[in-house]
Amino acid sequence: MRKVLGIETSCDETAAAVYENERGILSSFLFSQTDIHKLYGGVVPELASRSHLQKINPIVQTALDEAKTKLTDIDVIAVTNKPGLPGSLLIGVCFAKALAYALDKPIIGVDHIEGHIFSPYLTHPEIPFPHICLTASGGHTSIYLVHGFGDYEILGTTRDDAAGEAFDKVAKLMGLPYPGGPIIERLAREVDFQDFCNYPRTKLDNLDFSFSGLKTAVLYDLVSKGAYDLKARKVLKPDDQKLKQEVASSLLVCISDIFKNQIKKALKAHPEVKAVTLVGGVACNKYIRAQCLELCEKRGKQFFVPAPKYCTDNAAMIAFVGNYKAAQGKFSDLELDILK
Length: 340
Ligand code: KG4
Ligand code: ZN
Hints:
single chain, 340 residues, five-stranded mixed sheet, 43% helix, binds 5'-O-[(R)-(carboxyoxy)(hydroxy)phosphoryl]adenosine
């Protein structure tokens, strides 16, 4: 039996989890800093690091308590060491190294994106290889061909903004709070996900993504509707519910179409894949999930998404990766550094 403590502090969640190779996830606990960063319309790195420092000890302790596990019963410590905000990553990595040193236990550095790629296995251990994985969150949007645990290749990535970032930025342009994705989804549902504005579906020849043109198209649409003052950078119609619903719904349908186009292309280029997964914060979106499911069913492919709590940043996915890396003998050492 192997018990893995997972620690994740790459952005604005302080998270810890305990995974056991025989029973799976025993606990997964986090503190979200959303309320701290809300005031500023995005994550403030210095505030993020300070909050991680305050929370990491109690969060790790709570995860251990919930798993009814003593620190001395932990066999491996897995920690996110890249990519992410340097100050935030440092808190998790230093904490994990101190634990590993004091307990004389091995440490494993985990790539945050690898955590997302394998997060669907926490609830669906049956997902076949090879499969296509679309990761879509606030910091990254990429498509991967996944051959096995820890064995994956990138097929395409965003050239500019991430999909979640497009939701967050458009929400800000309409005076809506951060994070924008869940609010945009709610507004879009109120008008049955209709496409009012027909925003441009950026089409690239390869499997890359680009969302900055879409963001600009929405910006100029809002300006033309008298809803945003470009010079003063001011939201002009924050109470126009109909306008917000129409823009939100059109944006969501557009991003969903862009995802579907790229998934279709990836499946065409790799007909051998048996399944598609959608991961990251944007995978919480029920409309996008339903659209991708329909597409996959039509093509005879299985489709999987993680449980919503494992879509957004969490430590369970980090502990999961730590577990298979330990089984593969891929340990780090106390020289482990951030962003390497
Ligand atoms: O994976 P995540 O928690 O953090 C990063 O690694 O970035 O993803 C956060 C992103 C935010 O941009 C947020 O707006 C988006 O996920 N998001 C959503 C939804 N819930 C969260 N986007 C669309 N629809 C949602 N329901
Ligand atoms: Zn993430």
